[in-house]
């Protein structure tokens, strides 16, 4: 599914919760706070690159890595997440 998603997939869900699951650890709730369109480059696999921005509450910090995100409407999606600030994360689709 990651190759099928576009910014339009996520725009309607800004403000909604995603649950991150990783290696049997307690799940962490992330809120999708933004969808940023990124500049396209020749030869890039994705015609419309974008970045998802997430924030978490006082839950444990997530390390950089691939997480299965669960969403009530979108279902499950494996996404590589990078911490960008305290309690903030990004997932780049390029």
**SSE arrangement, N to C:** HEEEEEE
Biggest sheet overview: 6 strands, antiparallel, barrel
Gross geometry: globular
Pairing-aware structural class of the strands and helices? mainly beta
Radius of gyration: 13 Å
Distance between the termini: 14 Å
Q: Work out the oligomeric state of the chains in this entry.
A: single chain
Provide the residue-averaged pLDDT. 90
Which consecutive residue ranges, at least 5 long each, have pLDDT under 50? none
Instruction: State the share of residues found in helices, binned by percent.
Output: under 10%
Q: Which band does the percent of strand residues land in?
A: over 45%
Number of helices: 1
Q: How many β-strand stretches?
A: 6
Q: Which strand order spans the largest sheet, edge to edge or round the barrel?
A: 1-2-3-6-5-4
Keywords for this structure?
94 residues, mainly beta, 6-stranded antiparallel barrel
Report on the structure:
The chain has 94 residues and is mostly beta strands. It has one helix and six strands; from the N terminus they run H-E-E-E-E-E-E. The chain has one helix at 7-10; strands spanning 17-21, 28-37, 50-56, 65-71, 75-85, 88-93. The chain has a six-stranded antiparallel barrel with strand order 1-2-3-6-5-4. The longest helix has 4 residues, at 7-10. The radius of gyration is 13 Å and the shape is globular. The two termini are 14 Å apart. The mean pLDDT is 90.
């Amino acid at each position: 599914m990651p190759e099928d998603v576009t910014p339009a997939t996520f725009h309607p869900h800004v403000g909604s919760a995603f649950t991150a699951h990783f290696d049997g650890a307690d799940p962490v709730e992330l809120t999708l706070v933004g969808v940023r369109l990124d500049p396209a480059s020749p030869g890039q696999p994705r015609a419309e690159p974008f970045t998802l921005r997430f924030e978490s509450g006082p839950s444990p910090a997530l390390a950089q890595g691939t997480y299965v995100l669960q969403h009530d409407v979108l279902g499950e999606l494996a996404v590589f997440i990078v911490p960008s600030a305290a309690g903030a994360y990004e997932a780049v689709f390029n």
